[in-house]
Write a structure and sequence with these properties.
Elements lengths: L9 H20 L7 H8 L3 H7 L3 H22 L10 H26 L9 H16 L5 H9 L4 H10 L4 H16 L3
Helix pairs in contact: 1-2, 1-4, 2-3, 4-5, 4-6, 5-6, 5-8, 5-9, 6-7
Length: 191
């Protein structure tokens, strides 16, 4: 896959791109829980061994697809303009984070569902980043026992919860974001 100098071989890069494109097509057109490694390999036109050399399971493929989208949001949280980035009060930043996450979930729900099944969500690097971000906002807002509250504040962003609210309950993205913004302001004060 990579050379001794750390560069990805051209054929490995082509195969990786084919696998990711095939997986994204499958995730966007089918229930992510029904996508299998065999189906991805067949759709990508690569052998199973080629697929398994880089990705141990379907979740790892979904994580790779999500990585770029989540990294962009992380950059905005660290250095973007307020209220998402630094410089706004903690309640405003948490509300902006919720709004950005609702947009990310809406655009990439199939991928998130493929990557974050059950408690696998809590083991991703992105979730660790979200935890640190929410923790820093709680500490900045003077919330006692902040560590006990972090996962509770992230729970409404679970992909299954979002899908249920949007698809089963028919809530609009604006309604979901507004209610999460209300929660942010109740926990951290403001407005």
């Amino acid at each position: 896959m990579t050379t001794a100098a750390g560069h990805e071989r051209a054929d490995a890069a082509r195969n990786r791109a084919r696998v990711l494109a095939a997986a994204e097509r499958l995730f966007s057109t089918e229930d992510p829980r029904s996508v299998t490694m065999d189906r991805i390999a067949k759709e990508a036109g690569v052998g199973r061994a080629t697929l398994y050399r880089r990705y141990p399971d379907v979740g790892s493929i979904a994580v790779a697809l999500l990585d770029e989208h989540e990294r962009l949001l992380q950059e905005q949280l660290m250095s973007g303009p307020p209220p998402l980035g630094p410089g706004a009060p903690p309640a405003e930043r948490l509300a902006a984070f919720y709004g950005a996450m609702v947009e990310l979930l809406d655009r990439h729900l199939a991928l998130v569902l493929g990557a974050e099944v059950g408690d696998a969500r809590m083991r991703t690097g992105a979730y660790g980043f979200w935890r640190l971000h929410v923790r820093s906002l709680l500490l900045a807002g003077g919330v006692p026992e902040a560590d006990a509250l972090i996962d509770t504040l992230l729970a409404p962003l679970a992909p299954e919860v979002f899908r249920h609210q949007r698809d089963d309950r028919g809530l609009s993205l604006a309604d979901i974001s507004l209610s999460l913004g209300w929660l942010a302001h109740r926990v951290l004060g403001g407005r």
